Amino acid sequence: MLANLTGWHGIAVLAIIVLIFGASKLPALAKSVGQSMRILKTEVRELDAELTPEAGSAALTPRSQRAAPPRP
């Protein structure tokens, strides 16, 4: 009887168990993951701004005020 069970059957059973017993905690988990991703994105932006200050200031300068690149 158990010889016909494969890995996919085990994964399906685990998913059902998580859904049944962990359904009340899933929204809190999703909220926590969302907040963590938001924090990670802001930290990456801040780090990028620290490492490349010239790129950040050039992005804020209007095109009409930027120096034209030298022509060869």
UniProtKB/TrEMBL annotation:
GO terms for cellular component: TAT protein transport complex. It is a single-pass membrane protein. It is found in: Cell membrane. Its main location: membrane. One of its GO terms (biological process) is protein transport by the Tat complex. Keywords: Cell membrane, Membrane, Protein transport, Translocation, Transmembrane, Transmembrane helix, Transport. InterPro entries: TatA/B/E (IPR003369), TatA/E (IPR006312). It holds the Pfam family TatA_B_E. Residues 51-72 are annotated as: Disordered. PANTHER family: SEC-INDEPENDENT PROTEIN TRANSLOCASE PROTEIN TATA. The Tat system comprises two distinct complexes: a TatABC complex, containing multiple copies of TatA, TatB and TatC subunits, and a separate TatA complex, containing only TatA subunits. Substrates initially bind to the TatABC complex, which probably triggers association of the separate TatA complex to form the active translocon. Belongs to the TatA/E family. This is Sec-independent protein translocase protein TatA. It comes from Pseudoclavibacter terrae.
